[in-house]
Design brief:
Blueprint (H helix, E strand, L loop, with lengths): L3 H13 L3 H15 L2 H14 L2 H13 L4 H17 L3 H14 L4 H9 L9 H6 L14 H4 L19 H10 L7 H6 L10 H8 L7 H9 L3 H7 L7 H15 L7 H13 L4 H5 L4 H13 L3 H11 L4
Helix pairs in contact: 1-2, 2-3, 3-4, 3-5, 4-5, 5-6, 6-7, 13-15, 14-16, 15-18, 16-19, 18-19
């Protein structure tokens, strides 16, 4: 019978083939023989990829209870923070990341996840909401205090309605060029823009492509796949790679693999992925995209028979560290 270390290697091999359930079972057998922080960390990653947040969280906590070396401890804390963020517990995710930064202040993944946290009170856990409440004294008055009466005057700046922003001709032209099949809907789309198209965030625009109806998505797919790779460095230089856009990009890749919208799509996509993988938050965003799409892309590339290209795709899309 294999020992715990041999089972760990077997589990890693199953994980590398994206057989996450099989890998989790192998790690389970290894843990029964000799539990270790590394085994708990690896199995937690399996459960993360499967979306099994409860078991993933338990594994990170069990691993942290053991005497882990700093490198493994940081990895466990990072994965715990990913789980907490995914379950909308941003407060505890932040606390977990702060603990990781106390061990490794320069850890790139931890810093990027920390910067990506968005605190939405409506989604925070109830106990965190209660603990953050500050009592505000309320005083009853018979009339509006003198210093506030000017606010009620009709000509006060805060009460003057502002004109709706105008949509530039350039914006209309670019929308028509990008979505030639949707000209009838174009005025409605343009009316929702709050400022000229060219002044809007590039990331905002790319994310908007994902909301196109299915019968019009081909235009969006073709558009993102034909963007020069350097474009992604410019778009994501500050904000980092957006998970929603990355998911859309993978959809576009699969569409291209089964249609003729782009010649030599596999080389074009690879160059774009190389560019995106050098940007902030790529590794984190990769945790939240459709694993089915990632698996399907790898199968398509493997089917081309180009082993070197497959290795490059695999290196970029492989999640286990």
């Amino acid at each position: 019978m294999p020992n715990a270390d041999q089972l760990r290697v077997m589990g890693n091999e199953a994980f590398s083939k994206r057989e996450f359930k099989k890998a989790a079972k192998i790690y389970r057998d290894a843990i029964k023989l000799a539990a270790s922080p590394v085994l708990y960390s690896n199995r937690a990653q399996c459960f993360i990829n499967l979306g099994d947040w409860d078991r993933a969280l338990k594994d990170t906590e069990d691993g942290l209870r053991l005497n882990a070396e700093n490198r493994v401890r940081v990895k466990l804390l990072f994965r715990k923070a990913v789980i907490l963020k995914s379950t909308n517990d941003c407060v505890n995710s932040k606390l977990t990341l702060e603990e990781a930064l106390g061990i490794d202040p320069n850890n790139k993944q931890v810093i990027e996840l920390m910067n990506s946290l968005k605190f939405n009170p409506k989604k925070m856990k109830l106990e965190n909401q209660k603990s953050s409440r500050v009592p505000i004294p309320i005083e009853s008055v018979d009339e509006i205090p003198e210093e506030y009466k000017s606010l009620m005057e009709p000509n006060h700046p805060s009460l003057i309605s502002k004109p709706n922003p105008q949509i530039s001709e350039e914006a209309t032209s670019q929308i028509n060029e990008l979505f030639p099949a949707s000209k009838k809907k174009q005025p409605e789309l343009a009316s929702r823009l709050t400022k000229p198209f060219t002044e809007r965030s590039g990331t905002h625009h790319l994310r908007a492509l994902a909301s196109l109806p299915p019968h019009k998505k081909a235009n969006g797919y073709k558009y993102v796949l034909e963007l020069p790779p350097d474009t992604f460095n410019d778009l994501f230089a500050e904000s980092g790679v957006d998970a929603e856009f990355l998911d859309f990009f993978f959809e576009a890749t699969l569409f291209a693999s089964k249609s003729n919208i782009l010649n030599d799509w596999h080389s074009s996509v690879l160059n774009s992925l190389k560019s995106m993988s050098s940007c902030r938050r790529f590794d984190i965003s990769l945790q939240f995209v459709s694993q089915e799409n990632v698996d399907a892309i790898l199968r398509e590339i493997k089917g081309l028979g180009n082993e070197e290209m497959y290795k490059q795709y695999y290196k970029i899309l492989h999640a286990l560290s």
